[in-house]
Specification:
The structure is a homodimer. With about 500 residues, chain A is α/β, with parallel strands linked by helices. Chain A has 14 helices and 17 strands. Chain A folds into 2 domains: about 220 residues, Aspartate Aminotransferase, domain 2, CATH 3.40.640; about 140 residues, Alpha-Beta Complex (Aspartate Aminotransferase, domain 1). Chains A, B: Its cofactor is pyridoxal 5'-phosphate.
């Protein structure tokens, strides 16, 4: 079964691979490349790798935040000359990962040093049963690679009914059809997932075999799956033989919930990966939200068999990630950098910072927007977003009698009113994200004619990732625009 | 026609796009992202971009070679403490591209500052008629993205009969069939290309519409297309409506040829891009060979319409390249770095260095290998490789009567003897690249039964990218193994 998807539990998951993945052969050049590195006494005239003495680079140095402070993010943010630390990589060491190695060709999974550092990080937070890490070029790259491995043209993938459109759109040209699963303020509803799977009819096509979901601070709804929902969803994945693509960029940004106040010691929610006894979870992680998006560095943790496929596909497409990020991360997580303890301190401090922003944002929202009575929101337990429910039923031109007889289509004019509201915001100098952008695209066979999403577009996504000034100004405009819009006052 | 492949010359090239590309929609998130950046007075609560004050990075610094010396590569290589230059990027400037911008999200083509620097570089060497640059994650990423845009399952792409197997293999799972074009020491033979296209029969499937080729120091044959051949091939591309994917990583490593000795002023060969009046060339460039492979940074230069498609596909898969490389390159090519003049000095000095290596390698080859009479080679005019012809006809067990009657298949046992030779090399501690690895994979409909490639596998690829010590030891082993193998001496 080598090369096919046999999980470590002995479960054969190879039927989840698409035909492209099944016929892909390991790169023969990489085989010889590995041969020469495995046997250091071999004389190699084989690979056309430039010698490191010809790299015009001798040293790379990053000035990074110190994590010695009690609340390192707050200290760093407030004092642009405050304490820092230097992470230095030199051409031939001593350092955690030299330029000589980091800037050479390597294989798809990333350099062993970087892989090790990432694996320790994953073990620290998730203790997955038996999984391996492949480096990626960030979450978008990681997710689309999972789709390329799993998706056959005509296949159906399940996802949250409101989802990040960059991801859902990216799958469409590949021929993947989306099957949206209804959500509430707690995220994807397990019973709806069960309904969809249990009532799937052969004429709808191949039964969905992949669930793509964002469990923490879901984009755009800001919802977070409770532990109970996660367990139910994993059990359903076992029952219906689903692969779960767990996209979790906001994992470290988990705040308090109804039952507990946030402290530095507050635990993180158990991930799907941590429960994955079958090897059916492909967890996609990223440094974008806890370090910087432009790093374009992330990783996928999967069972060994999917790991092999990911590496092979990476070798045959993007190749391994850049050395800069691999060197930075290896140095940062190593003995001369933050170490894992320092990283943990940073992300907990960052979580506290975003928690402050969230609370600031909620307070502003209530004062400027909630007080109008035309919109409301729930405090998100993770992530960067408020999902603002616009009380569109209060609009003088609201209609809920649009459907005539046994006609299909929306019952309300919510979509049109929300479009108008979005335009009004723009006219007043405010950009928000309308729900319509995130409505999961559905093929004609699967659209819910009884209860179409057009009737549930009365939401806006706003972020608290920006500065306090931006939030102040933004919510002030939003409140004003809502009042004008609902009372149809012409400016 | 916006979004489809109308070239700037007015030629409609949209029929070259595959169906995936035709149905791909621009990323709606990027549209809003662009909106907020175009109108700086807009207040945005839209994009979940971490604020730069929360990046744990304040400064990035590279110690790079000084280009003040007459022969900067020689100076740099010989003195590990020799003169260098610091390239510094800070969080908020002043610098060519700050961390604030470089480490934020951007769009698929790369940051405007980096794109500008790359465009100037391309204009300097190629003066293309009217093209645009998209940044990539290196050549492998660039090429496979071109294939994804152009290749429909079942399509036929043309390429050199010996080609880089990582690339030819990568296209197979996508359903692309290769049609190899015969080569000689001057590379791809235009008349063979013409024959293939002129004699294409409908029952062979859709006529090839893409030619993938490496014009300089072709991998693995080391051959370089002359200006005359380039002109002929471009004219054939016009006649038969072919898109040329010009993969040119060795462009800067062009040496002397029969007519002229190499000097610092020696010109570079005109590229296909430089001739591209139609917009039918997609040129793929990389920093891997002139800086370092682990940078994973390159660019594609194409007509505006293919550019749009590339950006849209990049936004929907890998996303834009990492900020580290973009900041490094922008700083290096800018006023505080090498500048374009310094870069040109570096690559010309690097070319002289590889030229010395080539000559050293050729001398060694003649003494250790050529002198045995069992192998020969031509001096390559570019790149990193010698293509060693093994005189396999001299082997005592050589046979050229393998084909009986009207049977198909090879006439000789070249493939088997070369396999044995490769194993003998390994046994003696030497890794070389056998020609069999590079034989372009062919579908059953197109295999050349009269003149199959199995009879032309009497080549080895060796590189002069390594150190002199490695070359000395390597060629000494190769000479010895050849003598033993051809005289069937048992060790």
């Amino acid at each position: 079964m080598s090369g096919l998807a046999m999980s470590e539990s002995g479960l054969d998951l190879s039927h989840h691979l698409c035909s492209e993945a099944r016929v892909r052969k390991p790169n023969p050049m990489k085989a010889i490349w590995r041969l020469t590195r495995r046997k250091p006494n071999m004389v190699s005239l084989a690979n056309g790798d430039p010698h490191f003495s010809l790299y015009p680079l001798r040293k790379m140095e990053f000035e990074v935040a110190s994590v010695a402070e009690e609340d390192p993010v707050a200290s760093w943010r407030l004092d642009s000359k405050g304490p820092s630390q230097l992470l230095t990589s030199t051409i031939d060491g001593p350092c955690a990962l030299s330029l000589k190695t980091g800037l050479a060709y390597s294989n798809g999974a990333g350099l062993p040093e970087a892989q090790r550092a990432i694996t320790e990080l994953t073990n620290f937070y998730h203790s997955p049963p038996d999984h391996m890490a492949t480096l990626t070029l960030g979450n978008s790259d990681g997710i689309t690679k999972c789709f390329r491995l799993l998706g056959e043209p005509g296949d159906h993938f399940l996802t949250d009914e409101f989802a990040f459109s960059s991801v859902t759109n990216a799958a469409l040209p590949q021929g993947i059809n989306w099957v949206p699963v209804k959500m509430d303020e707690g995220g994807l509803i397990p019973e709806e997932l069960e309904n969809t799977m249990a009532n799937w009819k052969p004429e709808q096509g191949r039964k969905p075999h992949v669930l793509y979901t964002v469990p923490c601070g879901q984009n755009p709804t800001g919802s977070t799956l409770s532990v109970e929902r996660r367990k139910k969803i994993y059990a359903l994945a076992q029952r219906f033989d689903l692969i779960i693509v767990e996209d979790d960029p906001y994992y470290f940004l988990q705040y308090d919930n109804n039952s507990e106040k946030l402290s530095a010691d507050s635990p993180f929610m158990p991930s799907f990966l941590s429960m994955d006894v079958d090897g059916r979870v492909m967890r996609v992680d990223s440094f974008s939200k806890v370090m910087a998006p432009g790093m374009r560095l992330g990783w996928i943790t999967s069972s060994a068999a999917f790991y092999e496929q990911l590496v092979s596909y990476t070798d045959s497409s993007t190749q391994h990630p850049h050395g800069f990020g691999q060197m930075l991360i290896t140095e940062m997580l190593g003995a001369h950098g933050w170490g894992l303890g320092g990283f943990d301190k940073w992300v907990r401090s960052l979580r506290a910072e975003y928690h402050r922003r969230r609370d600031f944002c909620l307070e502003l929202f209530e004062r400027e927007v909630g007080a109008t009575g035309f919109a409301s929101t729930n405090p998100p337990e993770a992530g960067m977003f408020l999902w603002v429910r616009v009380n569109v039923e209060k609009h003088p031109r609201y209609r809920c009698d649009m459907r005539r007889g046994d006609q299909d289509g929306p019952q309300t004019n919510v979509a049109q009113l929300m479009e108008e509201l979005f335009e009004h915001c723009l006219d007043d100098g405010l950009v928000v994200m309308p729900a319509s952008i995130f409505a999961c695209p559905v093929g004609p066979k699967h659209s819910d004619k009884e209860n179409p999403i057009e009737d549930r577009l009365h939401y806006l996504r706003v972020t608290f990732a920006g500065t306090e000034d931006v939030m102040r100004e933004g919510f002030s405009i939003l409140g004003r625009v809502l009042k004008q819009f609902f009372t149809e006052v012409q400016k």
